[in-house]
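Final report, Chapter 2: Outcomes

The project's central promise was a pipeline that accepts a single protein chain and returns its three-dimensional structure in a standardized token representation, suitable for archiving and comparison. That pipeline is now operational. To close this chapter, we reproduce one record exactly as it appears in the project archive, with the input sequence first and the structure output second.
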Amino acid sequence: MRTDTLPLRAPAVEPDPAFAARPGLVRLRDALQTAAAPPPRRGPWKEPPVFFFDPARQAELDAARAPLPPADRHPLDARVAAELPALIDSVDVRRVARTIPGLREAAAALAGRLPAATDLFDLLAVPDDEVVVALDPARGVGVRLLVRGVADVGQLQTLLADAVPELVGRGPGRWQAYRPAALRADGTLPEGVSGYEHWLWPHAPLAAVPLVRGERVLLLGPPAFPAADAGPRFPELAADVTVLAVLAPAEVAARLGRPAPRVLARAA
């Protein structure tokens, strides 16, 4: 009796996007580092890159530096831009990119000179799976959030108004956001434009919110003036917040270093 064996086909396995993206991101890191590297030192004494004492030698060194061509004609800008969609689409790709030594530093070195390098640097700075604590000292309310893909403070405020109605106690849910250092000795926030040096503007990156014991902490107060609506830094980036806890007045007071009864009386 004859038996035929049918060939077995292994099921198709989709490659992991983060794993697949890593080699290209490493090559991109190398290309950015090469473009950002200072010109080699010249001369028999290996002089540093500034020679104020010798104008002729300084002019020679400046002439040897090859400036970057305009961004719209620079092939590296297009190469960086080609990697951005994968980083925007996948938090796993962003996590992998952040583990590549030197990638963010190389993007920072070219930020401002190549538009796509600026986008890359800002995108790698977007907090993913980080905890943000927002506290309203005047009303004694607060919230702990797990954020992902939230690029700037204005975007966080918009998501806060939708996710945590308890925080919306003044108008349409717009606040003036402050760094924790703005809190005065009596447990209140500055009024009007005083304390502006502690403001977190809506366009400020969320990564600018200070870390306090591993959590990003910002304070919320009444707006000093109506803020114009502006779109998020990366509109295509999927952003969401998960409410971990709505904080009771006593816990808000403890986080602010104030006695609970004082905050409770203010919130009543």
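Archive annotation: Residues 17-124 form one domain.
This record, like all others produced under the grant, will remain available to the consortium after the project formally closes.
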